[in-house]
Amino acid sequence: MTDLTSLGVREIRDGVANGAFSAVEVAEAFNAAVAAAAQLNAFIVTTPDHALEAAKKVDADRAAGKELGKMAGVPIGMKDLFATKHVQTTAASHILEGFKPEYESTVSQKLWDAGAGMLGKLNLDQFAMGSSNETSYFGDVANPWRRNDGGNAKLAPGGSSGGSSAAVAARIAPAATGTDTGGSIRQPAAFTGISGIKPTYGRCSRWGIVAFASSLDQAGPMARSVEDCAIMLEAMAGFDPKDSTSLELDVPAWAESLNADLKGKRVGIPREYRMDGTDEEILKSWDDGIAWLKDAGAEVVDISLPHTKYALPAYYIVAPAEASSNLARYDGVRYGLRDLPEKAGLQDMYAATRAAGFGDEVKRRILIGTYVLSAGFYDAYYTQAMKVRTLIQRDFEAAWEKCDFVLAPTTPTAAFPLGDKLDDPLAMYLNDVFSVPASLAGLPAMSVPAGLNKDGLPLGLQIVGPAFDEQAVLNAGLAIEQRAGFTAKPEKWW
Amino acid sequence: MSNYRIQGATGEWEVVIGLEVHAQVTSKAKLFSSASTEFGAEPNAQVSLIDAAMPGMLPVPNRECIRQAVRTGMAIEAQINKWSRFDRKNYFYADLPQGYQISQLYHPLVGEGALTIDADEKVGIPEDKVIRIERIHVEQDAGKLMHDQHPTMSYVDLNRTGVALMEIVSRPDMTSPAEAGAYVRKLRSILRYVGSCDGNMEEGSMRADVNVSVRKVGDTELGTRTETKNVNSVRFVMQAIEHEAQRQVDVIEDGGTIVQETRLFDPNTGTTRSMRSKEDAHDYRYFPDPDLLPLELDDAFLEDCRASLPELPDAKRARYTGELGLSDYNARELTAEVETFARFETLLAATAKGIGKPEKDVATQVANWSLSVAPGVIKALGDEADIAHATAERQASILDMQAKGEISGGQAKEIFEIVLKEGRDPAEIADTEGLKQVSDTGAIEEAIDTIIANNADKVEEYRGGKDKLFGFFVGQTMKAMQGKANPAVVNQLLKEKLG
Q: Cross-referenced HAMAP family, in alphabetical order (chain B) (predicted)?
């Protein structure tokens, strides 16, 4: 019998639907794989019962001849940034440790409604702030991949969706939710040899997702194929009246419309992305990608995104500014951690609670955000950053006159060892250099595996498309996937 | 210009006043959540996940709150900004679960407007005065802290958290406590006409931040101002200004300087005291709320807002004096409160219909009845009166009988008394209780003939030019008729017969 944990979303769904195996068998196989992979520390809590209950319902529905949902019988990992009813929701922070919401996020509810079940809540960088999953209060997540040098140094799975990327790459979940604020789906996907798409800002409701930077946060799927991403994104997306920034658009049939024939399409190659210090092997994989897309029928055009170099600094102003305000609600008054020293007043309680409840990176960003919004600095930082954001949006608008989508590397390097950049926040922030522009512009962007580097580590390629045109991104991703022939798997060591 | 002056040791001072009025928007749900806004619920019974700022919760603007603020802006003839935006005002406090208030700093919903306060010689407002309004923005209210529930802890009630407020910011155009009082009253009246705020200051639906500065008469530069927060009645607004202006004059004349600061008003003593100075003022770190898109209003929405506006106080007053021919006094009294004009207009319509005359022909009669006769009777009866009995139909019926001469003014009052006590039909009362005046000329003529016959000497004197005796004959006739004769008929017949 097939190893069920080797299967992806479509394979599981179809197998359950046609009776090749039951949803319960699938859930049990993944529950067991999750339980056996504690060394990866991908999950903060596991919820085997949730996965089983969902599977039982799917099996019963099938037996009753009912129509099955898009994700029927697929157990997934849920990033612990999504509020899940009566299941601890922490954003990987101490301040929310033990917090069990009375509500279910819109996106997770949609997935359950589509027949998915939950294996557990996935680890992440604390409040989604980080690029290595090392800022979690619940410990680092280990990348299932290791260098082929015979050493056993643990590598970062990327971040902030590091639990998601590790779980999917390790085959302990066929797919997982991620959220992407400046690259938090795409960078970890690239680091672990999987696919992940951040849709257009507003496609997925933010209701019930712990907020990091509201104007940038977007949920998206992470899986091992472009098709699986398309299927899962269909289940996650859709207008939500509870989110004012939600797009009032129908959800296209992305999976059904997948088409790797790119004849008549133009792929833009932004010259500003050839940055100093970019890994030679990354540049080579980019060239491979160009060749594959050309092979798929696309015309290659050079384009310019002239304000790219300002994107990273602008991002590290806007995102912390919003975060400093979004995280003000964690004050020890109504839920979560409360640190109330003897004879403390209200302000003392705030200070003690937040000092104990937030990690260093979160504190750093709150401080940056508070600073850039302060009287006297607001115009120099926040206003300027918002102007840059507009210019970057215009860069892309101009680019769409010349091309249908853009191809670029996802990250400047492959996965790095845990601990490598922990003491150097700026080096860590540089990880986002290729992913941040699409975030600032609110555009759909995807990372797909392109191959392995000489160390045997996966590299990702990024496709960015015009707003609302996830299909263009998915189609280009599929064309690369078909030609890259990426079949490598991390060797099991956990 | 007001003549309000403070006599200082060094000369005369004038006061400059600006008001920021916070008015709670009348709406069923809160500004960004569906929780109820009803007053008086159990603490924390009206708190949604959004109001409690649970993780991942998002605000969604309540269309009705926006509509009410736009209508209010239209009522003060203000510029309505079709594009506005919400900003976050960041600070930590236990009554503010989000850690920020959603407000509008940079792009308010409503721009420049104005209202007119009415001349009132008695309080030193010699003529109508226009007070400019800088802006109206919408924002969330905060919760309420309760310090008297526990010896060492404070409790928080979040029912008010997130309720929609309009902040109505005036220009510093007022120069006396009386003008400020008149401004608050006029604003309250407009809000109540529009229906965008119930104006209930006791329940906190309206409260004012009072900005006051002083300067020597003749100076053109503004002095340093202080802001006294959350003053919750017209009287307190005036008291706060009086006290604060005097305090500032005293400080300056004693060689001190006024510091820009936030102050608190103590209603028990009528004084203000310092709350915090500019140095330790919060840095609110305002920035556009990224959870909300800019507010864009289309023409259809604006048209709907405009079409739904009622006749406003100034227009109504002008119509009452112009079209209805009411006195200035009556027009002002009748238009001051929504309930008053509503009762008047209902009664006016019913009376005009009953009598079969245009409203303007009976308006003065109805106004006098509404403002003085009826309230007088009600007041005299005290607890015996049941106002519910005083329907417009019954009152119109009384006014109808009076207009037709069937009953006298005194009888009208007597009938109304019985109506208030027993709820009976006025026409039936007039019949049953004999409360009708005689207009039958035969009976009156008979009485007059007898009186003339019995008072030949007086008749002689009258005809000789002693006009004052006419009253004597009227009195005698009314006495003979037991007070029930129609005075107009009596007058007419007497004139004929006495020659």
A: GatB
